[in-house]
């Protein structure tokens, strides 16, 4: 595809302008055609919500899930979020996508709770664009009411950078969401610019340690020190801690030893359609 063509062109050296330019043009063309398709995708129901399980590292039970969007493109198949969310931002569709995922994820949570699975939370990602649009609180309230969920069943994830970039306005929004009873998590923690002072003031319930700190565990001494420090920091602020991107039993064991509460990663499952996640839920504890 165009991305790998760009990588290849870069590898071939800086002088290969023709190839590089061609690859960029291809990338721009792909982006433009995706943008016009994306407007229709929402209306035509081509967006899919996949789910990734989160495991309680103490009890070994499934604790909750994160909803992650995919685009089922009619010609190109499944397109991952890192490829089409930048297009969605450019097209002004990011808030609509987040809202779609919120409603879909809440409906699915209702079905799984009705089926008797003892899940604590459904996590939904919240972009700065959605936060700016200003209707997150009413959307969350509507989704919870329509699905008969308790506010504490819903967890909204936001990255450090999104919170910091939107300043006072986002702090006010987080306060209103916390008043509603929705749980709040800082996503990709450790990768962004964050002020610990503001973190202390924010009504956040959870830190999600970015998988950049997890992938080289247990071998990397510095990553191990960082993961341990983040967990200790979180604990001292009475926050729950989730580690992202757990891929091996050794990583899980170390994080459990450090006192990490929950884990998420390919060790348990890649994000999957609801029907496939349901098979894992039905199979019982991890
Ligand atoms: P995120 O919220 O930090 O989600 C975690 C990402 O890490 C997911 O990528 C997941 O598939 C991936 N991941 C999970 N476990 C592992 C692992 O063990 N190893 C590796 N290598 N990767 C793992 P995904 O689904 O491609 O999503 C990428 C990002 O796109 C998300 O990062 C999130 O920032 C954004 N995103 C996805 N869905 C939505 C959405 O509905 N709304 C918004 N605003 N952003 C979304
Ligand atoms: Mg997330
Ligand atoms: Mg993350
Ligand atoms: Mg991320």
UniProtKB/TrEMBL annotation:
Domain EAL, first and last residues per copy: 31-285
Protein name: EAL domain-containing protein
Species assigned in the record: Halopseudomonas sabulinigri
Lineage summary: Bacteria, Pseudomonadati, Pseudomonadota, Gammaproteobacteria, Pseudomonadales
Range within the parent protein: 473 to 758 of 758
